[in-house]
Amino acid sequence: MTYETEQIAAALKQAREGKGLSQRELAKRAGVPQSHISKIEGNGVDLRLSSLVSLAHALDLELELIPRKALPAVRSLTRLTAGSTSAEGAATAEPATSKPAYTLDDEEEDGDA
To answer: Would the pTM count as exceeding 0.90?
Structure first.
């Protein structure tokens, strides 16, 4: 398994647990066998795209392909959305003042321009 696959598996598990769902409940919602969810979360199976889409939708998540160059901005915006699941799979509820999404060249690091 690749690092990215492990991140996706961890994100799915965290989203499931965050919604208070058992593997069995998620399996019923997604139309995927519970044993398959267990294998996915345990990194014991190569996750198929169709299963990933089904699980994501059952967890009220969307899959989106974004340009790699835009990833830092997307991750920053995701962190600003309280209670969302970020691209890294971590549920976050950081305050909006935690870190700016960007700075202009003529701005100082601490935000005092």
So the answer is: no
